[in-house]
Design goal:
Helices cover 41% and strands 16% of the residues. The chain has helices at residues 16-27, 39-49, 63-76, 105-130, 160-180, 204-211, 224-236, and strands spanning 7-11, 31-36, 53-57, 79-84, 142-147, 185-192, 244-247. Strands 3-2-1-4-5-6-7 form a seven-stranded parallel β-sheet, with helices on both faces. Strand 5 (142-147), helix 5 (160-180) and strand 6 (185-192) form a beta-alpha-beta unit.
C-alpha cells in the first residue's frame, strides 16, 4: 500500500510497542498521531520525531477522545493506518481467591473496557475516517492493525480478564476484515509474546534473566522494534488481511 503523504493513528503511541511503531512509520514518511494518556512521554516523542508527529491526549474508552485523535490524523494527511497498541493496568487474581471469594466484576469490566472496547472504539472510528478517503489505485483505503497477545490462546492462572479481552480482540479481527472488505479497508491482528517494554519497570537485563530464558528461539524477550517492523510489513503487503500473526519466538505460555 502506497502511504506516502498519508497519516496514521497509534494508540499507546507514547511508549513500548506504540512508540516503536510511531518511529517506524515516520521513518517511512507517514505522519503519525501519538494517541496516549501519557502526556509528557507523548510530547517528548513527538518532539523527537519532528514535524511528522503530533501528540494528542487520548482515552481509548471515550468516543469523543478517540474522535479528536482521528480528526487530528486527518489534518496531517489522508488517514490510512490505525494501530491499537495501548496498554493499561491488569490485575492478577484467580476467579476465586484462597478464601473462595469471586474476582471483582468491576475489575474484570475495566480490563475489557480498555483492551477490547478501546480497540473496537479505535477501529470503528478510524475506519469511518478511512472510508472518506479516495481509494488508491489498488482499491485500498487503509489498514487497521490490532494488538492481541498469546494470552488469548494460552491464558495463565490469574489472567481471566486479560485473556478474555485479548481473545475478544482475536475474534474481532476476521469479522471486522469481512465487514470492511467492500470498502477497501484491511484488518490484521498481531499477538505478541513476552516483549520487553517500560511497563516492566526494571532493567532489560533483569527482565531477560527472569523471563527471556523461557523463549525457545531466539532465547530472549521480544523487542518493540520487531513488533514495529511487523506492523510495517502488514501495511506494505495488501494481501495480508483477516489474520492473526503470533510474534513470540515459538513461546507458549504454561499455566503459570
Amino acid at each position: 500500500m502506497d502511504v506516502q503523504g498519508a497519516s496514521a493513528i497509534v494508540t499507546g503511541g507514547a511508549g513500548g510497542l506504540g512508540a516503536a511503531t510511531a518511529r517506524q512509520l515516520t521513518a517511512h514518511g507517514v505522519s503519525v498521531v501519538i494517541a496516549d494518556l501519557a502526556e509528557d512521554a507523548g510530547k517528548d516523542l513527538a518532539d523527537q520525531l519532528g514535524p511528522l508527529a503530533r501528540y494528542v491526549h487520548t482515552d481509548v474508552t471515550d468516543e469523543d477522545s478517540v474522535r479528536r485523535a482521528v480528526d487530528a490524523a486527518g489534518e496531517l494527511g489522508p488517514l490510512r493506518i490505525a494501530v491499537t497498541a495501548h496498554g493499561g493496568p491488569v490485575a492478577s487474581s484467580r476467579v476465586l481467591d484462597r478464601a473462595g471469594e469471586p474476582y471483582g466484576l468491576d475489575v474484570f469490566r475495566r480490563t475489557l473496557d480498555i483492551y477490547l472496547v478501546g480497540t473496537f472504539n479505535t477501529l470503528r472510528l478510524a475506519a469511518a475516517r478511512m472510508v472518506r478517503t479516495e481509494p488508491l489505485d489498488s482499491g485500498q483505503r487503509g489498514v487497521v492493525v490490532n494488538t492481541a497477545s498469546i494470552a488469548a490462546f494460552e491464558g495463565q492462572v490469574g489472567q481471566s480478564d486479560y485473556a478474555a479481552a485479548k481473545g475478544g480482540v482475536v475474534g474481532l479481527g476476521l469479522v471486522a476484515a469481512r465487514d470492511l472488505a467492500p470498502l477497501g479497508i484491511r484488518v490484521m491482528t498481531i499477538a505478541p509474546g513476552t516483549f520487553f517494554t517500560p511497563a516492566f519497570r526494571m532493567s532489560e537485563e533483569d527482565a531477560q534473566e527472569r523471563w527471556g530464558t523461557t523463549i525457545p528461539n531466539p532465547r530472549r524477550m521480544g523487542r518493540p522494534e520487531e513488533y514495529a517492523r511487523l506492523v510495517w510489513s502488514i501495511v506494505d503487503n495488501d494481501y495480508l488481511n483477516g489474520e492473526v500473526i503470533r510474534l513470540d519466538g515459538a513461546h507458549r505460555f504454561g499455566s503459570r
